[in-house]
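Hi C.,

You asked whether I'd gotten around to modeling the 300-residue construct. I have! Everything is below, sequence then structure, no commentary in between.
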Amino acid sequence: MRVLVSGSTGLIGSQLVRVLRADGVRVQRLVRRPVQRDDEVGWDPAAKCGPDPNVIRGVDAVVHLSGAGLGDRRWTRRYKAEIRASRVESTRILAETLAALDPLPRVFLVASAVGYYGPYTGDREIDETAPPGSDFLAQVCVEWEAAAEPARAAGIRTVHLRSGVVLSTRGGALARILPLFRLGLGARLGDGRQWLSWIARPDHVAAIRFLLESDISGAVNLTAPTPVTNAEYTAAIARALRRPAVLAVPAPVLRCLLGETAELALASQRVVPRRLLDAGFEFGYPTVEVAIRELVAAEA
């Protein structure tokens, strides 16, 4: 198998590349800088320039993971435009490029997010059949998924990876707050009752590997089967580190400090991976207690 991966230096992409290569898969990495290695393929989506069709012709699968980080900066008007363009425009350019190839790739896996469902879905469980929300992130996700339509229309099996919060000690939300918890400054956010749809990084990568070989198409939630409240998540981190976590950061304080970006921490989504479970995918980290304990232990 020959697989093309964008976002290959990110939290998910870097691990995916290692796993695929360990399985004997030939991996080519899409990069936006000048090509420096034999396994790299250049492209410049900002200039509306896709990868050279002659270089990627014959690829079996494409995994598109790149995009500006959602929690990396405050959501100013300019950064929100960058978030949208880095996802929607890059996906459209890549989908159009793949649709014109002969032969066609077999599968196109495209990153998306559980933000598709909107930030406040209550206590009810949400699966892939739920409608989209109407806030900024939900609309970005709707446009993001629609941008892959040229590939799907051409006959390429297309999968939208609606990811939850990816837990890892190597990056992302968990890695950012672990130093505070180690100092005994861990705190729940808001009232702590908001639902968190999470997934351990090894399971996220394993799910992508699973979807490369399956016959599933359309939206797939990449979340663990057991979403938790923010208070439960906070307590699990505290237990894993054997530190207290009795503090709380009120929602108004978060909004004052982070602006609209605070909604990432305050959103409440109880998302379940119905299609993965129905397809027989087995999670290695099914509960947040197990995930955080083992991820932290592996770092030690």
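If it helps when you're writing up: Residues 92 and 147 are 5 Å apart (CA to CA).

Thanks,
B.
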